[in-house]
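Hi C.,

You asked whether I'd gotten around to modeling the 70-residue construct. I have! Everything is below, sequence then structure, no commentary in between.
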Amino acid sequence: MTNEEMQKLEHALLKKALGFQTSEQVCEYAISENGDQVLCKKKLTKKHVPPDLNALKMLLTAICRQICRI
C-alpha cells in the first residue's frame, strides 16, 4: 500500500471517528406527455453522522502503536 493510500485511509478513519456533516440530494422525475423525463421535485437535506466509537478505538490504537515504536 502506498503512502498516499495510507493517508487517505487515516483521513477517512479520523472523519468517521469525529463525526461529520453530509448533504444528500433526492430528485424525483415524472414522465411528460412527450415521454421525456422531467424534474418534478428536488430535495436537499443535510445529515449529521455521529462519531463512531469503534473508529475512534482503532485510531487511538494506531496512534499508541506509533508512539511505542519511537
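If it helps when you're writing up: The chain has one domain: 3-69.

Thanks,
B.
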